[in-house]
Amino acid sequence: MDTAWAYSSEIAAAVCDGRVSATAVVRAALARIAKHDRVLNAFTAVTEERALAKAAALDAERARGRRLGALAGVPFAVKNLFDTAGLPTLAGSKINRDRAPATRDATVIARLEAHGAVLVGALNMGEYAYDFTGENVHYGASRNPHDLGRMTGGSSSGSGGAVAGGLVPIALGSDSNGSIRMPASLCGIFGLKPTYGRLSRAHTFPFVASLDHVGPLARSTRDLVLAYDAMQGHDDDDPVCAQRPVEAVAPLLERGSAGLRIAIAGGYFRAGASAQAQTALARVAAALGVTNEIELPEAKRARAAAYVLSASEGGALHLGRLRARGRDFDPAVRDRLIAGAMIPAAHVVKAQKFRRWYREQVLALFAHVDAVLAPATPCTAPAIGQRTFVLDGVELPVRANLGIYTQPISFIGLPVVAVPVPLQPLPVGVQIIAAPWREDVALRIAHALEQAGIAAATRPSLAGAG
Amino acid sequence: MTKRAKSNKSKAKTPRAPAKTRTRPMLPKRGRKIPQRDPPDSFVDAAARALDLKLEPAWKGAVKTNLEVTLALAALFADFPLPDDAEPAPVFSA
């Protein structure tokens, strides 16, 4: 079985049936990483020994007639802010190299492995997650598999590159302002940012406590759901993790979009999008038969407030490191964090009060709709190193403005699936936004789009990738 | 014409008018730039001191620019009308 581009469900079925061993699957993944990652630069660590040991254990379990989990033998990798036993949790930084190795895995890693998945390594990311580009001055930029001269997007840059490049079928990322949805969009894959508090953040390196989410990236909605279902459930180690039972989406996926009320986000979300982003949104809307628009009130202010909260909380988190080791930061990150630490408290307090108001306004809209569509990024992947782009005729900095459509949504923790629309020459994503705790709605719509051929994670040629 | 002798009496001095507060920047004298102290510039210095943060000269420009951007964004919601009893989003439970 050629597992290079196989989906997780196919791999797990084949391993459970005995058509392929977990060891063979993992060896093939490790070989792909060795071959292509020199160019893609998605990985910062490959946990080969651990992965082969886990695979051997799975094969032994199967040989004993034990039933294996829904992700049996599926290789996966994680953004390097997830604690991985035996590795220092880098969070994209040079400074964190000096941390003691993690003594245990992040909760969500343990849960994926409990379902039979096999961790093969840790992935590159923007320093301390304060990044939308996927560039990293310490570890190099991750490269977009669809065009090696272009960004993956960030900050879950390696997660986007590794999945889009066929190195692993599932990766984990984090998203505070768009860091799962951005690489999903620019790399042409599916990404899920669940409801704030749905998935445990325990044993991960934080960025913005008010806004941090963790979630999966994959090349199919079914793989996204397999990972998501496996990771669900309350975690005593994470005070933010909601006391909710596992609400499995896998049995609901085939329901599709029938009966769901869907609208396009108007106003703020209609301004500034490139022709490609607009085309992608139009295709998705047309496929779903959606023509009506709905306006999220004060989305521009919401984005501004998310920006202020991120800068302030990020600056506060890193203040000790800024004092002691300022020169060891990525300058592009350091100077924003310092500025963040200087924001007057009155603005931070007001941002949180505005957040409650905005949440109430937006939730009221979900009395009339089940899901809202919006672009994930204003454009397809910019070139690596590109500093500015033109949105609506205005030249703007790339770093600060790639997240204009994602920030107002994560600001209030709504669940979002970013679906890839395979345009030429580059893909771009669309956000499917649902009400809190209704990941099932967003995933059903995403699945329907995938089955209709509108959303698809196409294979890049990787011709220049070794 | 007879010149009037100067009086030896000391004349009451007219109190000097108070110095006017400068409302416009001084025009630079030829060949010399007078450093501008924009509010964000002095704020950055003061904030760094308050945070016990040693700000290297090479960083200051970017820090200031980023702070100006952030404050401009804060201005978008800072005056958004909310009642005094508006609660912040996070709720603490004892």
User: Major beta sheet of chain A, specifics?
Assistant: 11 strands, mixed
- So, the CATH homologous superfamily of chain A? Amidase signature (AS) domain
| The first-level CATH class name of chain A | Alpha Beta
Radius of gyration of chain A: 20 Å
Share of helix among residues of chain A?
25-40%
Strand order of the largest sheet of chain A: 1-3-2-6-8-7-14-15-11-9-10
SSE string of chain B: HH
Number of helices of chain B: 2
Overview of this structure, please?
- The complex is a heterodimer of chains A (466) and B (94).
- Chain A is an alpha/beta fold.
- Chain A has a single domain, classed as Alpha-Beta Complex (Amidase signature (AS) enzymes).
- Chain A has helices at residues 8-17, 22-40, 48-63, 107-114, 157-164, 181-187, 221-231, 275-288, 299-317, 319-325, 331-341, 345-365, 398-401, 407-410, 439-451, and strands spanning 43-46, 75-79, 118-123, 143-144, 147-151, 170-175, 190-193, 213-218, 262-265, 293-294, 371-375, 388-391, 394-397, 416-421, 428-434.
- Chain A has an 11-stranded mixed sheet, sandwiched between helices. A two-stranded antiparallel sheet of chain A has the order 4-5.
- The radius of gyration of chain A is 20 Å and the shape is globular.
- The mean pLDDT of chain A is 97.
- Chain B is elongated.
- Chain B has helices at residues 39-50, 57-78.
- Chain B is built from 2 helices and no strands.
- With 94 residues, chain B is mainly alpha-helical.
- Chain B has a domain at 39-77.
- The model of chain B is unreliable at 1-37 (pLDDT under 50).
- At the A-B interface, helix 9, helix 10, helix 11 and helix 12 of A face helix 1 and helix 2 of B.
